[in-house]
Amino acid sequence: MRVCKVKDMSIGEGKPKVCLPIVGKTNEDILTQAKSFEDIEYDMVELRIDFYESILDFEKVIILLKELKTIIKKPLLFTYRSLKEGGQIQLNDDQYIELIRNVCESQLIDIVDVELLTGNQVVYQLVEIAHVNHMKVLISNHNFELTPDNHLMRQILEHMEIMNADILKIAYMPLSQKDVLRLMEITMEMSSKLSHPIVSMSMGEIGKISRICGEFTGSAMTFASATHASAPGQIAVNDVNKILEVLHHD
Question: Most buried among 21, 32, 88, 247, by the most CB within 10 A?
Fold first, then answer.
């Protein structure tokens, strides 16, 4: 698996990197959550901006990011999750592009999430905006209903790489234990074929195993909960750290 360098962190090398989501509605909510991470071991933070009540006021978003960066010194992943992929709000294409443009030009983030199913034209624009501003791009695909068949999962990951992603993320809901194993198998297979790190997870209770075994299956990052979970099946960060340390220990 290839490595994506973000600041002094190498995504795709060693233990899966632990990312803590922030899902607050107001500035106070978000900054309070960020401050609560002070005594927690983690590698990066994801700001789920779709929860933010002023998401379409770009000046307020930038002010929020400036305040957040005074608290969080580790890499920051900026994520707008659309309603159709499990988020809180549905922006139109123009709103989505302008949001990402303003945030990338601010130089206040390190990685930006781009949803693959937004469509090739918009994805291409968003990737270009991010790369011109020296931001890494995580292209993502989520399905909260099922896990696609193996052929489609391969196609999705290959498509992400063609669209010039720096990190490829898939997150699917399993309907059986076999679905969990299929996702892990595809992750292992494609992590040796593709040129960029893969982040994969099976959601829900039966998918929890996929969130802690990435070092062996090829998933480079895991999302853990500190105060608020952003997806079903997220494990508490202290538990994740203990398990990863045991699995990684030489």
Answer: 21
At residue 183, does pLDDT exceed 90?
Answer: yes
Residues contacting residue 50 through CB under 8 Å, at least 6 positions apart: 79, 80, 81, 82, 87, 88, 89
Q: Pick the catalytic residue: 17, 169, 196, 208?
A: 169
Pure H helices in the chain = 27-35, 58-69, 93-106, 120-132, 150-162, 177-191, 214-217, 237-248
Q: Which residues contact 250 (CB under 8 A, 6 or more apart)?
A: none
**Model pTM score:** 0.93
> Which among 242, 239, 233, 225 is positioned nearest to 207, based on CA atoms?
233
Sign of CA dihedral 177, 142, 65, 130: positive
Residue 83 phi, psi (nearest 5):
-60, -40
159 is catalytic: no
3-state secondary structure of 64: helix
**pLDDT for 89:** 96
Q: Is 66 a catalytic residue?
A: no
Give the confidence band of 135 by pLDDT, cuts at 50, 70, 90.
very high
